[in-house]
Amino acid sequence: MKKSRSLADLFPILCIDEVTHFIVSKNADITAAFELTSPEIFAVADGEYDTLHDILVRATKVLPVGYMVHKQDFFIEDVYTPTFGSDFLRTSNYVAWENERHFTDRPYLRHRCYLYVTRPATPPLKRTSSQSSLLRRHLVPKHMLDAKTWAEFTDVVNQFAAIYQDSGKLKLKRLGPGDLLDNKEQTGLYQRYFSLSLDDPTLYDVDLTDGLHVAGQKTYTYAISELGDYPNEVYNSARLEQFSTDSSHFPISTGSALGMLLPFNHIYNQVILIEDGNALTNQLVKEVKRHHSFATWSKENEVSIRSKDAFMEEVKDRNRRVVRSHYNVLVFHHDPDVADTYRSQTAAAISKLGFKPKLANYDAETLFWSCIPGNIAEIGADNLATCFLEEATALWNMETNYRDDFFCKNGLLLTDRFGRPCMVDPFFGPMERGIIANRNFMVIGPSGSGKSFTMNNMVYYLLSHGVHISLVDVGGSYKRLCAMMGGRYITYEPDNPIEFNPFYSADLDPDEETKDALANLLMALWKKDGEPATKAEEVTIANIVHEYYGTMRRARQSGDDAFTCFDSFYEFTRDTYPAIFEQNMGSVKEFDLNNFLYVLRPFHADNQYGYLLNSRRNIDLMELPFVIYELDNIKDHPVLFPITTIMIMNTYVRKLFSVKGVLKMLIIEEAWKALAKENFAQFLKWCSKTVRKHYGSLGVVTQEVDDLVGNAIVKDAIINNSPIKFLLDQHNYEKRFSEVMQTLSLSEKQANIILSINKGKDANRPAYNDMALLLGDYCKVYGVEVSSTAYGTFTTERSEVEAINDLASQHYGNDLEAAVKGWARGERADG
């Protein structure tokens, strides 16, 4: 016969007080319920675990004798559900869509943690689990507690919560009726417990046929409730071997083995009863005296005497707080075979901690019942083991999931270390929260670490969120992305030389910043590197620029075709300005106009570099959201490279001052090559300190930390003014990572996290690479994983790039998007 019981008849909770929000049981126990927010897993240092543990101990110490603390962690399996109807996806291209499809149904573990403080109406040590309300057919509510008791309980709860809140490490949110009971906004806590779900609002009956079944799910319960189950020593943290190296120690809380590291459905209950230490000591003294009487009869008596003497010394000499503790892990699944697998894995996890796993065969239902929020006083003395408070709290789970959302409006698509997709916002949210003071960043990744791929992913999502990006590249890593995102790709080829037009102005009335930038460009074209300019020369060139635009405006007003470019500027300076110069009482001694024209002549008309500054195509670079300057073919050219870098500087500065309302990002790839040029190095130094004032961001990308160490500008300006850092695999530096720590001002915690990159990777996941994100003192490792279609868009592997290009030319009429999609499906070109 099926043994199911109606919850309505047996439910042990009498009410939730509308004023205090205390839970009142039918035994008249009163409970304050909280939701606890813990630090993110894999982002806590060794010393921080000691701090967290101290918070737990100090808070629990304020509780009077007889009070109970019940910590309850829900870990519920879920799968990622895409949001194809979101505004972001509706306005994005195929890459974002394919990534959503890629992560569809990706399993992950949801976590919610609750903390209950209970004042039992009668001492729990006088109850046994056999007296559970689940086994009684008639419960008679006891008289409600008087006002003094409620006031005292309120005061104790407030003191307890204040220690958590004031710590800055743990956060408590007080739960009220709207959180505990089902409503239109959310599933109540009691519905969550009886549905073994975080979303199902149903209060299911409990079925005791063939073991405990809750919400139609097979359950198993492992309990740790006897002192003999404990190992000799218990610590609050342990070394996580899979993320540690020979030279680094990666810590994890001891309780995480029964928390986030148990990757399936389970509820982890952690229970503490505040014991009367004096009463226990007096009892032990009596027992020791009795044992002494028989000590010569039994060796066991001698051992017992030594154990109890040591225990009493701890209480007396170190003022240790004595408690009773209990832990249990409830695992569950709809499929009994899967539940059996979970059972064996849980037993293995408990054994690995050094505890003896004990399956609750006969009291699983009473343990489940006593762990109903607000009913922990029914746990029974037979389920509580005597220990010290420090050891009892050392087994608590102290971490939770990464708190990054599935979507945020300025996020980059990454994964947490379990493979759950998330959108991470390094540039906007941290600035708003005061974590960083500017949006400058550095990316450091050796060859083969996935640096270029990671940057393609980053640039794609930033562009998709409306960021304007000017990117200086050496190596062609972004050509395909540029084509697919509708960007402007500027490079030098013999039959298509690089060209600009810094003189172009649609209204012929440029702002002062643009005219100053032009004057600086002309001075750089005229003077040799390091040759100083006189004040008269600076004034004269500024005046030439001013008079030039005035003349062009008057020409347009007269109906002439006034197109501004270097040619018209040169001709104005040659034909018109000498008279103005003479009228202004200028002299050859102060400004050699003929020499100026002679030096600039190669850039005019059909001369050697006549194409360089007369473009009619690249006249709108300042306004474009995505421009790539590919310098590989001219990086060693004595004329084209310096002029091109000046043009990039001038264009970005104009953009910085003129384009409003969007983040304007300048990214320098292979930065050491650009920094080798003094003027560009000084420009980057200026950018690192100034762009934040104009809603700008400077990004510096390099392969090796060594590239940065020898440059004083980098060390003193760029590193110090780049609070955002992306680090890829640094295992090549493991033996001398102290140098990296010193250069980047890393803490030991950050170093240990960085050295865990690509350690313990999940072989069952699609290909991915780890990346560490540092925001000030904050540091976490994420995975860079995308769909096969996005991979085809971002890859810089030469053989793959050539395969996609061949497929485009042979089968898709040079349609790169179609070729990428075909390549992702496994198509390849002929031959």
TrEMBL record:
PANTHER family, per database record: CONJUGATIVE TRANSFER: ASSEMBLY (PTHR38467:SF1), PTHR38467
Cross-referenced NCBIfam families, in alphabetical order? Bac_Flav_CT_G
| TM segment ranges | none
Domain (TraG N-terminal Bacteroidetes) spans 2-53
Q: What is this protein called?
A: TraG family conjugative transposon ATPase
InterPro entries, alphabetically? Conjugation_ATPase_TraG, F-pilin_assembly_TraC, P-loop_NTPase, P-loop_TraG, TraG_N_Bacteroidetes
Q: Which residues form the TraG P-loop domain?
A: 411-825
